[in-house]
Amino acid sequence: MNSNLKEALRWLKQAEKDLGAARNSLGAGNYEWACFQSQQSAEKALKSALYSKGFRKILTHSIFELVKAITDFESGFNIFKKEAKVLDSVYIPARYPNGIAGDLAPFEYYEREDAEECITYAELILEVVKKLIEK
Predict the structure, then answer these.
(1) Contact 67, 77 (CB under 8 A)
(2) What tens digit of pLDDT does each residue of 33-86 get?
(3) I need a surface site. Which of 20, 37, 77, 103 has the fewest CB within 10 A?
(4) Using the 8-state DSSP alphabet, how is residue 29 labeled?
(5) C-beta atoms surrounding 127 within 10 Å
(6) pTM over 0.85
(7) Using the 8-state DSSP alphabet, how is residue 20 labeled?
(8) Got the DSSP string for 37-101?
(9) How far apart are CA 93 and CA 109, in angstroms?
């Protein structure tokens, strides 16, 4: 197995674990964490896809930027622009009280529907990445 594929699989395994953690957080009512963990899952899945295409160092945390980068190799990822923007929107606010306008803390701001949406988007991205890497 070449080193890039090995690295891609390492990132993919963590993406799957993060998605599981997001589901656990949803079940526990920790919706802000479910949102953030979904973002993390999608980020790591997309980085996995880029590693599988020969990338060596990927610095961004933006799902949108990662989708744009992988679209250069796999045009099918272009469909994830909306999902990428939603997941990018929770990266900071889901973790930091000063990331949200007003007096609410993240745990007070995010609701079940937000967490379910983020998990769904991460699942969609992860499934497409898994198919790409299995080719």
Answers:
(1) yes
(2) 999 999 999 999 999 999 999 998 899 999 999 999 999 989 999 999 999 999
(3) 103
(4) T
(5) 11
(6) yes
(7) H
(8) HHHHHHHHHHHHHHHHTT--------HHHHHHHHHTT-GGGGGGHHHHHHHHTTTTTTT-GGGSS
(9) 9
